[in-house]
Structure prediction request, 231 residues.
Amino acid sequence: QLQLQESGPGLVKPSETLSLTCTVSGGSFSSSSYYWGWVRQPPGKGLEWIGSIYYTGNTYYNPSLKSRLTMSVDTSKSQFSLSLTSMTAADTAVYSCARHMWSGYFFFDYWGQGALVTVSS
Amino acid sequence: QTVVTQEPSFSVSPGGTVTLTCGLTSGSVSTYYYPSWYQQTPGQAPRTLIYNTNTRSSGVPDRFSGSILGNKAALTITGAQAVDESDYYCVLYMGSGVSVFGGGTKLTVL
Prediction:
């Protein structure tokens, strides 16, 4: 069974950079059928797609976050990462990684449990 | 900027049928948006229900079905149960690698 696990700091100071990593286990990381994505959910609010990355490093970003966002991949460790700069209180959210199917369909089929990131001084 | 719209809340009686919709502030939803639907209970990761408009994900009960109704994507729950009380989100693929979540619908079963 495919599993995804987020890791990273739970607290980030305003104006600093958030770095999160998702580790994938129990399945193939380098497949032509899917990307690997990040989704976030502010407390009490809805879900927001952040971006997705292919195992080759090709990326697609949410246009509203593109200027602050960088995603990367490490196939040797079956990991992909997110870096979000200039964090503000509005970026406080549960950040989840997910497998993003990309083979003629586009949907998320496996999810991590999520990691709460709070932006506060 | 086009926004994906969902009803903020909906209520259904146990055993009843409810249809949640997913639309666009500009334009019509078609199968080319590859609508997908997700169920989320508080504190839990989303669960994939429907993808590619009307394909049920593995293990999803057949009381959940997806379709295009008029100019929107739709999720219908036939014979709603108390366990279906959750938040429901749709996602549309907008092209050029961009996916957008709807604002979500809070479904109450009572």
In short: The mean pLDDT of chain B is 96. The interface with chain A takes residues 34, 36, 38, 40, 45-48, 51-52, 55, 57, 89, 91, 93, 96-104 of chain B (CB under 8 Å). Residues 64 and 104 of chain B are 17 Å apart (CA to CA).
